[in-house]
Amino acid sequence: MSLANEKLLGKVAMLSCLDDSYVKQIEKLGWRYCVGKVGSMESNKVVAAIETGAKKEDVIKGSIYRETHALYHAIMEAIYGVTRGHVQLGTVLRTVGLRFVVVRGNPYDQAEEGDWIAVALYGTIGAPVKGLEHEAVGLGINHI
Amino acid sequence: MSLANEKLLGKVAMLSCLDDSYVKQIEKLGWRYCVGKVGSMESNKVVAAIETGAKKEDVIKGSIYRETHALYHAIMEAIYGVTRGHVQLGTVLRTVGLRFVVVRGNPYDQAEEGDWIAVALYGTIGAPVKGLEHEAVGLGINHI
Amino acid sequence: MSLANEKLLGKVAMLSCLDDSYVKQIEKLGWRYCVGKVGSMESNKVVAAIETGAKKEDVIKGSIYRETHALYHAIMEAIYGVTRGHVQLGTVLRTVGLRFVVVRGNPYDQAEEGDWIAVALYGTIGAPVKGLEHEAVGLGINHI
Amino acid sequence: MSLANEKLLGKVAMLSCLDDSYVKQIEKLGWRYCVGKVGSMESNKVVAAIETGAKKEDVIKGSIYRETHALYHAIMEAIYGVTRGHVQLGTVLRTVGLRFVVVRGNPYDQAEEGDWIAVALYGTIGAPVKGLEHEAVGLGINHI
Amino acid sequence: MSLANEKLLGKVAMLSCLDDSYVKQIEKLGWRYCVGKVGSMESNKVVAAIETGAKKEDVIKGSIYRETHALYHAIMEAIYGVTRGHVQLGTVLRTVGLRFVVVRGNPYDQAEEGDWIAVALYGTIGAPVKGLEHEAVGLGINHI
Amino acid sequence: MSLANEKLLGKVAMLSCLDDSYVKQIEKLGWRYCVGKVGSMESNKVVAAIETGAKKEDVIKGSIYRETHALYHAIMEAIYGVTRGHVQLGTVLRTVGLRFVVVRGNPYDQAEEGDWIAVALYGTIGAPVKGLEHEAVGLGINHI
C-alpha cells in the first residue's frame, strides 16, 4: 500500500491540467481520462460538466452509482481547492473559468488497491468582469 | 488588468511544486521565490515552515505586517485545497508530507497591479501510517 | 440537569423518523410533535416545509420569534447532518428526499430546564437522477 | 441502482446505534459490523476508536488503503452530524460520549454496486461537566 | 415581535465592547451584563473565560443547562465573526487579544419574547508576534 | 508595525456603522470612506451593493484588480460575522437588512504598512417575515 513513484495519479492529472503536453503521459500509463473546459457562475454547472465529460469518455460507468458517487466526491474536493472555504460561486458574486482533467488508475504498488480517480482543476476565479480574476487550482482524489 | 499568458504566477508556482525542473522558469521571470518541505500532523507547523522559508529567502519582508498578512492568507487558502473542507490535520487523525513553493511577482499586464504572492503545495495526506495516504494539492494567491 | 433515560428527546425523535411505529412513544410522553415529508433540490424549501409543519401542528407558536429562532437553528443543525460540510443542495447538483419529525419536550430531570426541540431527518441524498443516491440522517436539538 | 427496501444500510446502522435490539437485524442480513463506545474531548480519539473497532471485527481490512480511506470519510461525515458545522470538540470546549455502529453491506438491488459502509453515531455532546449536554446523531455512508 | 429601537441588545453590547463609556447604557436599561478580557492561542480558553465571566456576574445561571447552552452558542457565533471561516486559533498559528461584553435582556416590544443574550467581542487577531495583528469583531445573539 | 491607538481602523468603521455620529471621526482622520444600506435575501446583492458604494465614493479604484480583490475579501469576512458559519442567506431561507461602512486608511504607526480597508456591517438577520429577526454584526479587514 504505497504510492508508486512512476504512477502518481494526482501529479499526472494536475500536470496535464496545467500543461497539455503532459496528457500523453496518462496515455502511456494506459489510464482512462478526459479533458474539458467549463466556465460558469453556477457551481452545479461545473459539477455537471465534469460528470458529463467523465461519462462520455468512459472514465466512469454512469449506470453504476458507486462510480458516480466516487467521482462526485472527487469533484467536490477539487472545487474546495478552487473556492477555498465555501463551495459557492455566483451566490457570492464570483465566476470561474476552468480546465479539468479526470484520470482513473491505480497509483499504488498493490493491485488490490484497485482504481482511484483524480479530478484536477486549473483556471481563474474572480468577479464577473473580464480581468478581475486570479488563478486557482483544485485536486480531488477518491477510491472508485 | 488581465493576466499575462507568459507570466502566470499560479501556474508557474504549481508546476514548480510538482516538477523541480520548472523552478528555472521562475528565475527566468526574475521573481523571488522559495522551495521547501514540511511534514507534520500539526497545521500550525505547516504554516510556520512556509512563513519561515519565505522570510529567509526574502520573498516577503518579515518586518512589514502587510506582507506577513498577505502570505498568511495565501498559505491558509493553499491549505484549504490540501485539507478540503476544514483546516485540520492531527485533530482529525491525519498527517501531511508536503513540498511547497512560494513565488512573488506581478502576473498582470499592468505594472500598477503590483506584486502578488502564490503558495503552491503538493504532497500526500493520510493516516499517520506510512502508505495509508493519497496525493493532495493546494494553491493560494493574494495581492501583497 | 441530567438527561432522563425514559425521555430522551433526540432518540425518540430519531427513532420515530426512521420507523413510524415509534411515533406512539412520543404521544405516550405527552409531547407535541409533527411528522412530514419533503423532497427538493432547494435547501430553503426543506427549511420552509419543516417550519410550516411545526407551526401547523402547534409544535411552536409562529407568533413568538424566540420559538421560530429555536426551531430554525435546530433545522439548520439537522441539515448539517444530512449535507455534511456545507448546507447546499441544488447549487452543488444534488437533491434530497426526507422524512422529518419535530418533537418538543423536556428531556431533563429538572422541570426548570423547560422545553427543548428536536428535529430529526432521514431519507436519501444524491444526484438528481432516481437511484443515484444514498441514505442520510440529521438531528438538531435546541432549547426553546 | 436503487436502494432495496429490505436492506437499507444506513437505517439499520442508525437503528442499531439507537436501540441495541436492532443489531440482530444486521446479523440476519449477513453483514459484517461492529459496535463500540467512545468518550473524548479529542476528535482524533473518536476517529481512532471507530477505526480500531472496525479493523478488529474485520469490517474493513486494515492492510488495504482503499478500505481505510472509505471508512475514514464515512467517519468524518458522521462526526459532521454530531458536531454540526466544524469538526471540533475540546478546542471549542466540548466533549462527546458516543455509541458507534459500523456496518458493511450492499444496500442496492444490483450486485455490481458492491459493498458500502455506514458509520452511525449516537450519544451526547456538551460542556465538559456531567449533565451539561444534549443528544447528537451522525451517519456517514461511503462506497468501499 | 419587533426589535424596539431604544433597547437594541446587540448594538448596546457591541458599542459597550468598543467603547467603555457605553456600559452605563446597559445599566440604565436594567440589564444584567459582564465585561472582561481574554488573550489566548487556544479557542477553548476564550470560550471558558467568557462562560466564567458570565456565570460569576450572574448573567446566566450555571446550574441550568439551557442557559449554558444558549450562552455557548452565542459565544461560538461571536467567535465566527472574529475568526471568519473556521473556529481555529493556535492550530493555524494565530492568537487573539479580546475584550468581551455579555448582555442579557429582552430587545423586543413583546414581553413574551423573554430574555435574549448577546456576546460582543472586539480586539486583535494575528501572528503570535506583537504587532503582527489587525482588529476583529464578533457578535453572537441567542434566545435564553 | 503596531496599531496606533488614535487611528484604529476597525473600531472607527464599526462605531460609525453602529452610530452615525461617529462618521465625522473618519473625516477627521482624513480617510476615504463610504456609508450605505442594503437589504436582500441574495448574498451576491450584498456583495455588489458594498462594491458599488466603495467604487462610487472612490474608496477603491475599480480599474485596479488588486483593490477590488482586497475589498472583496474584506466584504466576505464581514459577511462571515453576519451569517456565522456559512455564507448563505436565501438558500437557507433568511434575509438581511444591513448598514455598511467601508473605510480605507493606515492604522499602523509605520507609513510603510500602507493602506488597509475595513468593511463594517450592522443590521438584522432573520426569516423573510418582518420582526422575525435579530441583530448581526461583521467586520472584515484587509491590506490594500
Structural overview:
The structure is a homohexamer of 144-residue chains. The first copy, chain A, has 144 residues and is of the alpha+beta class. The first copy, chain A, has helices at 9-18, 23-28, 43-56, 65-83; strands at 32-40, 95-105, 116-126, 133-143. The interface between A and B is medium-sized, with 35 and 35 residues.
Defining key terms:
homohexamer; 144 residues; alpha+beta; four-stranded antiparallel sheet; 4 helices; 4 strands; globular
N- to C-terminal distance of chain A: 16 Å
Biggest sheet strand line-up of chain A: 1-2-3-4
The oligomeric status of these chains comes to: homohexamer
| Low-pLDDT runs of chain A | none
Main sheet properties of chain A: 4 strands, antiparallel
What are the secondary-structure elements of chain A, in order, as H or E? HHEHHEEE
The strand count of chain A comes to 4
Q: Report the portion of residues of chain A in β strands.
A: 25-35%
* Estimated radius of gyration of chain A: 15 Å
The tally of helices of chain A reads 4
- Largest interface: chains, residues each: A-B, 35 and 35 residues
Helix percentage range of chain A: 25-40%
